[in-house]
Amino acid sequence: MTLAILPLTHLGSNRNGAIVAFGGTIIVKTSGADMDHVDIVDAVYQAAVRSELWPDTLCAIVDYVGAVAGNIVYQAPDGHGSFLIPGRMREDLNALYLQHYTGNPYARAFEKVKPGEIAVGNRLIDAKAVRHSAFYADICEPQNIFNQLFLPHASLHERGGIGGVALFLSRQQDEQAGKAAARLEQLSPHMARAIDLSFQVNRIARARELPQRLIDAIADAAVLIDSRGAVLLLNAAAETLLKQADGIFLSRSERPSLAAHISKTSTRLVNAIRQALLIADGEDTPFDGALSISRPSGLPPYLVMITPLAPTAVSIWDAVDSGARVLIHIVDPEAKTRRQAQQLQHIFGLTEAETRVAALIGSGMNLPEIARVLGISSNTVKTHTGRCFGKTGVRSQAALARLIASIPIAGNRPATPSRTNGKSRPQP
């Protein structure tokens, strides 16, 4: 479980101007010690919707309560998904803590504290024994931590894990531990709501990325179409295929849309997308969702499969307002064979020219067709074919095609999906 880091836009300041954000810049104008309860609550709810503000907000809370440092922490039972958001803590020691010390005496004692209650650590453990431990020497002493206050959070403090807000007191501050605990208790309901809101914002942000992840998981070219018939999202394979403009391309007219070079095929493609959109809207209409698109290069035609995203099946898309209504899957039969031929090249030591010929033989072309596609003579094709036979040990084109088809394709590294405006989006 993590908290999202969201894009920062304009934020207003609170009454004392404690936290102000403009165009991605966060300015902390005063410390938490100079802020009153209302100021701190304002800062907490700003952090709830702009998670990048949490470290500065925690620093303000630390000052307001009277502590040296603090964090929002979640320790998963198996360690997977644990996180720590620091407020005035040493980054190197945070990593050390999560790696080696999540089972420290304080954490074990805090497991028994109910959400909403404020725990004072040294009242629950043998503090004297802890001060002679490696945990204290490595984590506490370098950060001047003598005692801890802990506020468990309900959604983190479950399934065997432990999580919430921790504030750390120095030896001198520990003399006012009761006062610090009282201030933290006043903030308790606001902190609980703010953390829950952060998780909700994170889920919404991750949901926006879901269409990208789903479409990029498709190995072949895939395109999402919106309710107007315009291209909404391309995966990397589709972007590469459409840039080749070999039979199908991306029209950049009023709205980006798919088009074919052959007028009759383009009309069939547009009509099939329109039919799919009607079905996606719940209409009962005849639909033929498969067609082939010839390629000027002479390579085998693309196979296009069009799938309506029916209303009952696309609530996820609707929820994030992606507008996706149709999925178009474009298969290049020659591309798979080409990848298999490249594997053959590595196995048998084929040259680049021999590999190109072998790939086209594997896709079902005869020698004259290969000569035309590659722009070379038939004799040259025969020469390359003969050398392929010699290196692979086969004696016919059919046997070579069978050999190529039998070779598994090495897994591809997932690529980054792209919006139709050409800007790449980061992979989560």
From TrEMBL:
Keywords: DNA-binding, Transcription, Transcription regulation. Pfam families: GerE. GO terms for biological process: regulation of DNA-templated transcription. Gene3D superfamilies: Winged helix-like DNA-binding domain superfamily/Winged helix DNA-binding domain. SUPFAM superfamilies: C-terminal effector domain of the bipartite response regulators. It comes from the Bacteria. One of its GO terms (molecular function) is DNA binding. Residues 343-408 form the HTH luxR-type domain. This is Helix-turn-helix transcriptional regulator. It comes from Rhizobium sophorae.
